[in-house]
Amino acid sequence: MAVSGVLRPGHVALRVLDLDAAIHHYTKVLGLIETARDDKTKRVFLKAWDDFDHHSVVLREADNSGMDYMGWKVESPAVLKKLAADVKNSGLCTDFEWIAAGEHPNTGERFRFTVPTGHSMELFAEKDYVGNGCGTNGPDINPDPWPDGLQGIAPSNFDHCLLYGDDLDGVVKLFRDVLGFGLAEQVMAGPDGELMIGAFLSCSNKAHDIAFIRQPVKNKLHHASFLLGSWEQVLRAGDILSRTKTSIDIGPTRHGITRGETIYFFDPSGNRNEVFSGGYAYYPDKRTVTWTESELGAAIFYHDRKLNEAFLSVFT
Amino acid sequence: MARERFPITLEGHGSGHGFDDERVLVALERAQGFGQLKNMPRRLPVGCRRGGCGVCRVRVTGGDYRADLMSRAHVSAEDEAAGIVLACCIYPQSELYLRLEPIAVKEKGQKAVKTD
């Protein structure tokens, strides 16, 4: 197979202050589909309509906001064992833990570890295939292009996260050298332009599956992002967000980095969400795109050509 | 029932008006848009507007309000008892007096392109 090892972001687990308010936002405004609920641990599991595994978003009620962890689907149980050993032996990570199968519903065992920026990451190989509901003569037989009954913005997939942390060099080394990601784009700054302050990493054909920005903090979430099919859908998302009086951060606009068309907004607990479209196909033999400090504004927001203050200072 | 409208004063900077079902931060954003807030050291600190990021931390020095849930990472139970809240999560129930209390942003942000 062409995409091997780590296949894709499998799930993101977010802390929310009020579970009912969060469920309303994530199902009625963002338009994900609830697939399971665990009242004992105050967790809800959801997926975007074209995510074919059981869930891709976990919401957990807590007294503060932010990200609990992000999970990565790998190609097989054997690869899971190998990558877990590689992560342990890398000397870059801490807090290793095997989570039993079934702790997430319909999911096999997960290997959890803490990366150099302080974020918890997981690898797993098995999660039940539930499909996208588009088949007309049985699952995946003669499918329609999209299912009935979608609500709100209704992105097709959970796509990536952007995370803030201090040890960018360590985390980039981990994702490139141990987990096999490619560096699609980088932002360089400093007197000689040799300090990496942003890294956009791909394990697949996407322009990014995860991104990190160097900030003097540990374990912070900038945003969790979901995929739309067109610029028109991003504009429609803006209409839905305003109509529902959702807190909009910036957009619709375009990123220079990855060329994505985007709008940022906040869930009812202040976790930033993005829906976006566009970008390009990444391949392992593609050369890394570099953004320099002088063009940082256009790199982040291509039309404004400057950072809004909230981009760097607001995170959970 | 008609919405009640109250003056909201940000100490040292000026006054605007808010409604009893409106987040105080949103009222302050409008006041800033009208040019009613002066001598701000920086722009009004507006972040997520939903109680998660902590940048709009204020101390209520006078008046009544009701509050939504706020992240305990930025407002402890002791803070909240002392009137330290996130402006995005409170709704005025009388005339209000506020003071910016931005300790949560001290170590945040703006350092990504500095190399020292």
Adjacency order of strands in the biggest sheet of chain B? 2-1-7-3-5
CATH C-level name of the largest domain in chain A: Alpha Beta
Which structural class should the secondary elements of chain A be placed in?
alpha/beta
Using the coordinates above, name the CATH class of chain B.
Answer: Alpha Beta
Number of domains of chain A: 2
Largest sheet of chain B: 5 strands, mixed
List the defining traits of the structure above.
heterodimer, A: 316 residues, alpha/beta, 2,3-Dihydroxybiphenyl 1,2-Dioxygenase, domain 1, nine-stranded mixed sheet, eight-stranded mixed sheet, 17 strands, B: 116 residues, alpha+beta, Ubiquitin-like (UB roll), five-stranded mixed sheet, two-stranded antiparallel ribbon, 2 helices, 28% strand, globular
Structure description:
The complex is a heterodimer of chains A (about 325) and B (about 120). Chain A is an alpha/beta fold. Chain A has 2 domains: about 5-125, Roll (2,3-Dihydroxybiphenyl 1,2-Dioxygenase, domain 1), CATH 3.10.180; about 155-315, 2,3-Dihydroxybiphenyl 1,2-Dioxygenase, domain 1 (Roll). Helix content of chain A is about 20%, strand content about 35%. Chain A has helices at about 20-30, 75-90, 170-180, 230-245, 295-300, 310-315; strands at about 5-15, 35-40, 45, 55-60, 65-75, 95-100, 110-115, 120-125, 155-165, 180-190, 195-200, 210-215, 220-225, 250-255, 260-265, 270-280, 290. In chain A, a hairpin with a 7-residue loop joins β11 (about 195-200) and β12 (about 210-215). Chain A is globular, with a radius of gyration of 19 Å. Chain B is of the alpha+beta class. Chain B has a single domain, classed as Roll (Ubiquitin-like (UB roll)), CATH 3.10.20. Chain B is built from 2 helices and 7 strands, in the order ββαββαβββ. A 5-stranded mixed beta sheet of chain B has the order 2-1-7-3-5. In chain B, strands 4-6 form a two-stranded antiparallel ribbon. The model of chain B is unreliable at about 105-115 (pLDDT under 50). Classes of the chains: A alpha/beta (about 325), B alpha+beta (about 120).
